Amino acid sequence: MENYNFTDHRKLKSTHDQMMMFLKMRGAQPASVIAKEFGMTGEGARLHLLKMINEKVIKAEHLLKGIGRPMTLYSLTKKGHACFPDSHAELTTQILTSIKALLGEEALNRIILDREKTTFARYIEDLKNLNDMEDKLTCLAEIRVREGYMAEWQKDHSNYLFIENHCPICAAAAKCPEFCHSELKNFRQVLGKDVQVERNDHIIKGARRCVYTITRKMVIHPDLSP
Fold first, then answer.
1. Three-state secondary structure of 8-72
2. pTM
3. Which of 17, 59, 116, 125 could, after both became Cys, cross-link 182 (CB 3.0–4.6 A)?
4. pLDDT in tens, 9-41
């Protein structure tokens, strides 16, 4: 299996919603790729894209590559990204601010730690009978999709990439980066001691998505050590 994706944009009714989901999951794309994905002509795709540009949910950027006409890439705008849920962002940040102000930072850290432990218990229960790494990643991606992260995984040579195309707690994570530290810690624990998990792209640092590289640790047999 080379990749896995639980979020199928074809299940959405509106063509515009489908295109927005496709751009959310795959990043900036030319009209030709979008047209092929949706089984329409290039002109038909551009008409849809033009309407979405007028609605300010996507933008067009011209990329000059070598000699010839520049390539036009379409991607979501800030307004477009905001169409995807962020778990009551304003209320969440207000609550976090109040907890920190009234009870102190230590109390906030205890709340985040409790959430980390509760989440870990749920994840480890779902993954407990899985030994194969790809089975673990498939299960973890399914869990994270249910939680709103639009997760998928891909094989990258000898490594794996675990990708989250959306963060439903982005506002909370921007306010308290400890949420992100907690999630990375949980990934490392549930995927096992024989792998190394590193976050390479991070949404709250300006990336389009969060990407984790999962690498199997080198095991040196005692008889082969120098």
1. CHHHCCCHHHHHHHHHHHHCCEEHHHHHHHCCCCHHHHHHHHHHHHHCCCEEEEEECCCCCCCEE
2. 0.79
3. 116
4. 556 668 898 999 999 999 999 999 999 999 999
Q: Which residues of the chain fall below pLDDT 70?
A: 1-13, 65-68, 87-88, 219-226
- Token pair, residue 129, equals 């009978």
Q: What percent of the chain has pLDDT over 70?
A: 88
178-191 vs 105-127: helix axis angle to the nearest 10? 30
Contacts of 73 (CB under 8 A, 6+ apart): 28, 29, 30, 60, 61, 62, 63
8 Å CB contact between 31 and 49 = yes
Bridge partners, 210 (sequence order): 164
